[in-house]
Write a structure and sequence with these properties.
single chain, four-stranded mixed β-sheet
Length: about 300
């Protein structure tokens, strides 16, 4: 028999003799009608579904395949909730998103909504696919809210280092670069200022050290000795006399007993003057064909003397 909200009819003995039952019946009908769709005629399966907003949630281990009464889900049931009572692996809320039926975890829906609307995340955000921030900003406001990029960070816009400089000291604006930090970058202005200051210092500073005729032990430089240069510099040798022809050679290399001839000179008048560069940490020796007086001068680039070996 189909449900008929107009029964019992007014002509029946129930309506005439049992007003209390009729009143109670009417109250029951009103209560059911608040959450269900009823009409005259039709079956409960067709007409007794919940109104939108009044559906009850499912609480069970397995995914609900049909309504409670065994009938198939319809579009009226979309949005129904299923509380998965199985602690492993789900134990979460699910929403009916298709009548097939398809139950979608609420967490998936929430993340999709947040990603689409660029809202605030209060906890860890795990993203397994592309995460696009279009016109809005992506902000990490917490003091401990570190953003870790395990792969490549491609930036097509600008990175403002001001906040990083202020909060962490990872960006420095030091004109003298006094800290010499190996893990911080410098501003363009500080690089320019440091470079210009260095150029001015080099332009006004003396490149050469003082000319000397003695070694680091204050001994007079002699052509019979071997010396090691503590810096780059220039060696000048003036040898000979006016009566005899003399050959003078300068040998220099990295060996403690230098054998590479880097300069050689002889003169009919017996006078030889040579100036040659000597490299830092190289050794040198002056040889003269016969023993004659020799004047030897050392001019370092910067500072650095000659160490007698």
């Amino acid at each position: 028999m189909a449900y008929d909200k107009d029964k019992p009819a007014s002509s029946t003995s129930l309506r005439s003799s049992n007003p209390e039952i009729l009143t109670n019946w009417s109250a029951l009908e009103a209560a059911l009608n608040r959450e269900h769709e009823f009409s005259t005629g039709g079956t409960v399966a067709d007409q007794a579904h919940h109104k939108k907003g009044s559906a009850r949630a499912y609480f069970q281990d397995s995914e609900p395949a049909t309504r409670v009464d065994g009938t198939a889900f319809t579009s009226q049931d979309l949005g129904s909730l299923w509380f998965d009572s199985n602690a492993s692996p789900d134990n979460q809320f699910n929403v009916l998103t298709a009548t097939s039926p398809t139950w979608t975890p609420v967490s998936t829906e929430i993340i999709a909504t947040l990603l689409a609307s660029a809202r605030v995340f209060l906890d860890t955000l795990g993203v397994t696919s592309d995460f696009a921030v279009n016109t809005d900003k992506f902000t990490v406001a917490g003091a401990t809210g570190n953003t870790v990029v395990a792969g490549t960070l491609d930036v097509t816009g600008n990175i403002d280092p001001t906040t990083y400089e202020t909060n962490n000291g990872g960006f420095l604006d030091e004109d003298d670069m006094a800290s010499g930090a190996a893990d911080k970058v410098a501003s363009q202005q500080s690089i320019k200022a440091y470079t210009e200051a260095s150029l001015v210092t080099q332009a006004t500073a003396s490149i050469f050290g003082a000319r000397t005729t003695v070694d680091t032990a204050s001994g007079a430089l002699a052509h019979t000795e071997i010396y090691k240069a503590q810096s780059d510099g220039f060696l000048t040798v003036n040898t000979g006399d006016q009566d005899n022809r003399r050959e003078t050679k300068i040998l220099s290399d990295s060996s403690a007993t230098p054998s590479t001839i880097i300069a050689r000179s002889s003169d009919d008048l017996g006078r030889n003057v040579m100036t040659v560069p000597i490299l830092k940490d190289d050794y040198f020796q002056i040889t003269i064909q016969t023993d004659v007086p020799a004047s030897i001068y050392w001019v370092p680039i910067g500072t650095g003397g000659l160490v007698k070996q």
